[in-house]
């Protein structure tokens, strides 16, 4: 197993077009439904104004996957410590063996955030429409990585569509809009 420090990762991974291509490919795989991404495991450590998130995803055909552990202890600045920290564990997707420990302390997340651009996502749930909506949306999702498309094989109703969208969303805040135009998207802050 290899262990990489933040300094080594900063030397190897730059804020450049190579990293942008890797991130883009990940969003494309997500839009094409080739990603296994379980919900975020989140734990509050309220007595110390902290939280820990554990995130992972697997992209079909990629030889490794990572598990990211990201603690945030927001009073640490009062102690002269960083409020954000973290690491990633890289596993072989063929054997499940640990290949590397990335002691990035949030550096790789910072690169991804900087290159991902917009800080929102759009989740569209096609509830069994027959008007080519799904085909059009899948085409748009290939162009716009912030768009995620989920589809029901048959109409399941508004409540189920909203549930699918909320379960798909990765952000801590969710706003819902129906496709009938009843609500103005400009009302979303």
Automatic annotation (TrEMBL):
Pfam families: Glycos_transf_2 (PF00535), OCD_Mu_crystall (PF02423). Residues 117-188 form the Glycosyltransferase 2-like domain. The keyword Transmembrane helix applies. One of its GO terms (biological process) is lipopolysaccharide biosynthetic process. It comes from the Bacteria. GO terms for cellular component: plasma membrane. Gene3D superfamilies: ornithine cyclodeaminase, domain 1, Spore Coat Polysaccharide Biosynthesis Protein SpsA, Chain A. Keywords: Cell membrane, Glycosyltransferase, Lipopolysaccharide biosynthesis, Membrane, Transferase, Transmembrane, Transmembrane helix. GO terms for molecular function: undecaprenyl-phosphate 4-deoxy-4-formamido-L-arabinose transferase activity. InterPro entries: Glyco_trans_2-like (IPR001173), Glycosyltransferase_2 (IPR050256), NAD(P)-bd_dom_sf (IPR036291), Nucleotide-diphossugar_trans (IPR029044), ODC_Mu_crystall (IPR003462), ODC_N (IPR023401). Transmembrane segments: none annotated. This is Glycosyltransferase 2-like domain-containing protein. It comes from SAR324 cluster bacterium.
